Amino acid sequence: MGAAGTRKKVQRRFKLRGFTLKVDALEEVVSFLSRFPDAEDDALDLLIDEIDKESLKSSILDKEAVRRVVSLLLEAEAAVDPASAAVSSRSALRVIDAFVVPRFQYDPIKKVFYERTGQLPIHGEAGDKADLYRDRHQLLLQRLSRDKYFSRSSFDFEMSEAESCEITPVQSLIGCAGRRWIMGVISQLEEGQFFLEDPTAAVPIDLSNAIS
């Protein structure tokens, strides 16, 4: 795409987001995009997203407003890879090896995340699928438990058990009456019978009146 086509594309993209570019601002954007010839569209979307986060007094953008955001993006790029400042044709996209990304697991006893060490195998074992769902359940549970609607304040002594929406394990349903707030997975452990289960226990449930 030529310079004229790039300018038209930039003006169109900014207009769709509610912005109007002055001539000097347009040239600043085109100069920024020239650094990423292989990922021009991604760089443009990133720039517009960052400008949209700014506290702007007007939707008409001048050179200074654009240059301020461009400088922040280039500084962030240089911080990630100092050699990128000397590479004019660097792509905005990166391919990251999945075996290099740190893998964290939640410990429900200590209530902390810890990094799993050791080399990850390419092929999973028989129990890895169950571990995947268990880790995902623990992650969602600890995030939900930190929500103000599902956590009971340690200093709110006047809140009754009926008013509390604190998440309790499925095991708390066994032999207990009253209302409980639980989180689990619906599974079919037996033919024709559904269960609600979590890592602590599984209880049968009746879905005959459930509405899909």
Automatic annotation (TrEMBL):
Domain of life: Eukaryota
Gene Ontology BP terms: DNA-templated DNA replication; error-prone translesion synthesis
Alphabetical list of Pfam families matching this protein: Dpoe2NT
Gene Ontology CC terms, in alphabetical order: epsilon DNA polymerase complex
Transmembrane segments: none
Gene3D superfamilies membership: 1.10.8.60
Matching InterPro entries: DNA_pol_e_bsu_N, POLE2
Gene Ontology molecular function terms on file: DNA binding
Domain spans labelled DNA polymerase epsilon subunit B N-terminal: 7-70
UniProt name for this protein: DNA polymerase epsilon subunit 2
Source species of the chain: Ananas comosus (Pineapple)
